[in-house]
Specification:
The chain has 600 residues and is of the alpha/beta class. The protein is built from 23 helices and 14 strands.
Length: 600
């Protein structure tokens, strides 16, 4: 083993190292929240390439969002590994379809729809069914769920009548009758085919069908990619699993990484069954558990463990000393190469998570905003603070309260960073400058360009649009600190363009507001989870035991986003009386008398 290959294992804990060294055959990594799974799999790939076991162009790393794929590529580049395909399932399938379609079908690939709503609206007009925008979104979600679950429209029609296996019938979107729901899906498919178009699920289905029916395509694809890694494997759908099996063929060089406790997309067709059944499907699989949490304090880890105790596939997390740094990102070695030992008891420096009840949503929002403002005055960085909630509508009182408190905030899922006019201008200007500027320090090159667009080293005192523009440009400037030493100006701008294409946004100096679903994969020092009342968490339409358990996992995701401080709250009344979430009692959090009375 070369010294450089050996160095890739430095700083990994014992379990991560086992995962990194298991390069061949089936490998299942059960990775709890905050246990460094992305670090483990990127070092595994880099180690495989460095030792010569993997040819980079034979490796396919699969994930579920463009942002996650971009993060994998960024980390691999920082480890000196290039040429590995790190993509979403859809991007991989679309690339293969574009290549093989002219040879197998003839002509160019049909146009892929950017969304279903417009075509669904036209289909509704064709069959004379009146639908509002919300219903169109729900029908689009039903189509996506049906297709990734590998159900035909006839199967769907039966489920609306009798439910799965003769159980409770599936609810129809909006006020549509079962017949209208089925007719609308049929009309959508007909209209789409008539116009020679594909939706995103069709891309997966068509790619799978082409590999199944064309031996030459199957042979070519399997020669191209030899080793597969799937991140967030608990989110795989039956259709994605079918495609993965087709890519693999009769081989078993597959590494899957996931956490059953973070399965929060069952409503969209995801299933943790594939993760939990992996050892049964591959009896010779190497099974690795990552349970040493590097993110959260002991009280937060304890709350997360209490919440998921006894649930199928749940991992028991262990926390580290608060004075030990998190595992380093981007390929840097740990301070001494040896992770600190786990601990099971808190120290006086660990803030205890709190549960607080409020009279109204407005008073809850005002209290949270005041707390955030106080944290910022005491030196906290706004980008290290977040407020999480179940549905987007809950952001309205929070936005008003934060505005009144003078706290800058960013709504995740709102206007995309790379679509802001000042950001588009900055990216184009940086790209143009990088083609002519050479032999200057990266910081100087980037700062010179951004200064020409109005950026200054010190933040302006003004608020509103002036401060927002500065924050956006400063976020780009902050990326200079994240790239490996020796990165050239041109390499920096190429990475920026790749981020723009993948919508891999940098962090802005503002408090983050986002839903619990959107928070997955992120983390902050200080997290407030608001609106924890029954009817919101669990959501009112979660009526089956399976749906309620998914809501529990969603709260677990929220709890494990917090590094040092966690505050949970609920409001007693909105439109009508509301009870605290049934999950709060399962967190094992001790509260003072006032909070205890609030969560009676």
């Amino acid at each position: 083993m070369t010294d450089s290959a050996h160095a890739l294992l430095d700083g990994l804990d014992a379990a991560q190292r086992v995962a990194a060294e298991a390069l061949l055959g089936p490998v299942c990594v059960l990775a709890g929240a905050g246990t460094g799974k992305t670090r483990a799999i990127t070092h595994r790939i880099a180690y495989g390439v460095a030792t010569g076991v993997y040819a980079p162009n034979k490796v396919m790393a699969l994930t579920f969002t463009a942002r996650s794929a971009s993060e994998l590529r960024t980390r691999l580049r920082a480890l000196g590994t290039v040429g590995v395909a790190a993509r979403t399932f859809h991007a991989s399938a679309l690339s293969q379809l574009n290549y093989f379609w002219p040879f197998v079908v003839g002509g160019s690939l049909p146009r892929v729809l950017g969304g279903k709503a417009k075509l669904l609206g036209q289909a509704a007009e064709r069959i004379r069914v009146k639908v509002d925008t919300a219903t169109l979104r729900d029908v689009a979600a039903e189509i996506e769920w049906r297709k990734v679950s590998e159900l035909s429209i006839d199967d769907y029609e039966r489920m609306l009548a009798t439910g799965p296996d003769g159980g409770q019938p599936r609810a129809t979107p909006g006020s549509l009758s079962p017949g209208q729901a089925v007719d609308l899906q049929r009309a959508y498919e007909t209209l789409k085919d008539d116009r020679r178009q594909l939706d995103f699920e069709d891309v997966l289905q068509a790619c799978a069908g082409m590999i199944e029916t064309e031996p030459s395509v199957a042979m070519h694809v399997r020669e191209q990619y030899r080793f597969f890694i799937v991140d967030e494997y608990q989110d795989v759908s039956p259709l994605q699993q079918r495609l993965l099996d087709l890519w693999l063929g009769d081989r078993s060089d597959l590494c899957v990484v996931g956490d059953a406790s973070q399965t929060i997309y069952s409503f969209a067709g995801a299933s943790s069954d594939f993760l939990l059944d992996f050892p049964r499907r591959y009896p010779d699989a190497a099974l690795v558990r990552l349970e040493q949490n590097y993110r959260s304090s002991v009280p937060i880890v304890d709350a997360a463990n209490h919440l998921m105790q006894g649930r199928p596939g749940a991992l028991m997390l262990h926390a580290l000393r608060p004075d030990f740094p998190q595992l380093p990102e981007r390929g840097a070695a740990a301070s001494n190469g040896r992770p600190a030992p786990p601990r099971t008891s808190p120290t006086p420096d660990d803030p205890t998570p709190t549960i607080t009840g409020y009279d109204t949503d407005t008073s809850e929002a005002a209290a949270v905003a005041a707390c955030l403002a106080a944290s910022i005055r005491q030196g906290a960085k706004p980008q290290d603070l977040a407020v999480l909630y179940r549905v987007n509508a809950q952001a309205v009182p929070l936005e008003a309260a934060l505005t009144d408190a003078g706290v800058a905030y960013h709504v995740r899922g709102g206007a995309r960073f790379f679509e802001l006019p000042e950001v588009r201008q900055a990216v184009m200007t940086l790209r143009a400058a990088s083609l002519t500027v050479a032999n200057e320090p990266l910081f100087q090159s980037v700062s010179d360009v951004l200064r020409s667009l109005g950026w200054t080293l010190d933040a302006p005192q003004a608020r509103g649009s002036v401060r927002d523009r500065w924050e956006a440009l400063n976020a780009i400037m902050g990326l200079v600190d994240d790239v490996p030493a020796g990165t050239t100006f041109r390499e920096f701008t190429e990475d920026l363009l790749a981020r723009q294409a993948a919508q891999h946004e940098p962090r802005i100096a503002a408090v983050t507001l986002c839903t619990l679903h959107a928070a997955k994969g992120l983390e902050w020092d200080d997290v407030h989870i608001v609106g924890l009342g029954d009817g919101l968490v669990p959501i009112g339409y979660a009526r089956t035991p399976e749906a309620v358990e998914e809501e529990r996992r969603l709260l677990y995701v929220g709890v494990t986003r917090a590094r040092r401080r966690l505050s949970l709250s609920w409001a007693e009344s909105a439109v009508g009386p509301r009870e605290p979430s049934r999950f709060l009692a399962d967190l094992g959090i001790r509260t003072d008398r006032a909070a205890s009375a609030a969560v009676r």
